[in-house]
Amino acid sequence: MRKLMADPFGRAALALPAAAAVILTAAGLDAAVGVRLDLARLCRASYLVVEAECLGSASSFDSEGKRILTFSRFSVKRTFKGLESTEITVATPGGRVGNLVQHVSGSPSFRHGERCILFLWRSRAGHLLPAGLTQGKYRRTVDGKGREIFRADYSGMAFVDAATGMPDLNPKTYAPLEIEAASFRDSIRSMVARQADEEKSRAGKGGK
Fold first, then answer.
1. Residues contacting residue 174 through CB under 8 Å, at least 6 positions apart
2. Using one digit for the tens of pLDDT, what is the confidence trace for 110-152?
């Protein structure tokens, strides 16, 4: 039986560039290559962090007509970081338009009625996308004991070691992560507040 982790985010943040840059498509591999992102990195990389319920999804081609994007609408229930709003649209690479299907490894999908905590960054085109692909999605569910939890699934990801760039072959790195809901919400609030204080402190020192 998988052990439920109350607070798995004690490890240090990874010293990497913006989260949007750490995910690469692995040529010839059915996986997206990147570094496993901890809570600090997810929060820092995110323009918006919310708990929201999916209202539905639809796919279409991008402005150049080459790539398919799926746009999922969400009703926002809680906002942990960023401007509050009642509804948002999240873009994910890949999808189906007519008979054409584009699959992007590591890209999360959403179902109508699904409730998640989402870590979202904003692209140059103005789209909100999950940070670190599927790493930016934590789905709410109930475990065998009736407890509300959030679950992260790393299917389609191939992680590398941040220091060496070598493949991370530890099976535990890829195991789905289950976190008590109340503890996870508290951890996010604390991390967002701490990072905001750090930014204020740096801004204050820079103004002297």
1. 154, 157, 159
2. 999 999 999 999 999 899 999 999 999 999 999 889 999 999 9
Say how many domains are in the chain.
1
With respect to residue 79, please indicate whether it lies within any of the assigned structural domains.
Answer: yes
Q: Which residues contact 104 (CB under 8 A, 6 or more apart)?
A: 25, 32, 92, 93, 94, 133
CB 122 within 8 A of CB 112: no
Kindly state the greatest CA–CA separation across the chain.
60
- Establish if 63 belongs to a structural domain: yes
How do residues 153-202 score in pLDDT, each as one tens digit?
A: 998 898 988 888 888 888 888 888 999 999 999 999 999 999 999 999 88
Query: What whole-number distance in Å separates Cα of residue 23 and Cα of residue 36?
Result: 10
pTM, to two decimals: 0.82
Q: Which domain holds residue 148?
A: 21-206
Is residue 34 in a domain?
yes
